[in-house]
Amino acid sequence: MIPGWRTGSLLSWRCRLANLAAAPLAGWISLDAAELLAEARRRCGLNDFGAAGFREALDVLVRACEQEAKLSYVGRRLVRGELIHRLENRLRIEADFRRHPEIAELALPEPIFITGLSRSGTTYLHRLLARDARMRSLQTWELHRPSPPPETASYQHDPRREARRRELAWFHSSLYSRRGLEQVLAMHDTRHDSPEECWPLLQNTLRVRTFFLFQHVPSYHAWLQASDQLEAYREYRRQLQLLTWRCAGRFLLLKAPAHLTQLDVILRLFPNARFLWPHRDPQQTVRSGARLAVAVRQLRSDHVDPRALGQIVLRDQATRVRTAMDQRASLDASRFHDIDFRALVRDPLACLRGIYSFLGAPIEPAEQALRTEIVRVQRARQARPAAADPGTGLQHAAIERAFREYRARFLALG
Hints:
Elements: H1 13-21, H2 33-44, H3 54-67, H4 73-99, E1 110-114, H5 122-129, E2 135-136, H6 140-144, H7 159-175, H8 178-187, H9 199-203, H10 210-214, H11 218-226, H12 230-244, E3 251-255, H13 263-269, E4 274-279, H14 282-298, H15 306-329, E5 336-340, H16 341-346, H17 348-359, H18 367-383, H19 396-402, H20 404-410
Parallel strand pairs: 1-3, 1-4, 2-3, 4-5
């Protein structure tokens, strides 16, 4: 079978045809770090990228993309565009801080971090809580382009909203087949104006595990795991100051599985942070995470092995949860609130009451909005197609062995 035209691909025929026809041209799409930096400067007319630590991350990442990722023609275009975009964001963010140095002194709203294993109910919980007007959540469009800082008065008609809607519409219609798009949106429905994971802010630091999720870059992943993430989270915090400078709330609602292994770093920089940690059966999170990884990597490479990727996801999730449990053992227990995914699905309002009690905030001002969102999500879930198994070959016993301690601690009851 011709690579890139296999049965089971989630890609559109246009995307697959481009990968086949333009394969000889893929090498002409530059991922040279110096050229990417120059192109970002040219587009912005700016020169200051901020803290110098990003450059090592960029070098490690592009080298891994060149040597390990086996990027397709479309994949190289996506990676190049993504990296230039992240560098442009860095330039614009630094320009904002030069113009308004007072932003660096801004006190953030009370931060709430939703984290846990991928596919464990973090998105459901995040979008429920975002219905509370007291919560400053971050929407897809502003995470994609955090500069200039959004303002409360113009938030609902900021032109970046419509720009991101058009970009996502093109992305979905051009790159995925109809079946593929249904599968991807069933796993994670991203809309331009939905509350979204804050990993794009960490992508601007070029130090975040989502780059490893999107393409096969094991050397970058190993470098990242061995690196101190304090500087990356300092940059992340600055971006939060920018985003809340003129558009704040009582609470700052943040969510990303990437935070799971950085609990200690987060509490160093956000000493008043509180964590909401949903827990779901690893048999579900690992399999669902592997399905998502196969779907997103197919966009960038014609050489995705679902079985090998299933094992990578299994090892990654098991390692991350062990790291989080080890860190949590030495941290203030009062900073954490655990949520059983089964209870969250069975009786979401009861779970939410427990969360609001943990936060020390009354649920009543938001209760009607929360009830409305619960009904909407339940109806949408009934209409959602089941995600197909891409053939990861994950074994029940292997998952149980990897998560034995985690299951005993967090999922023994319920």
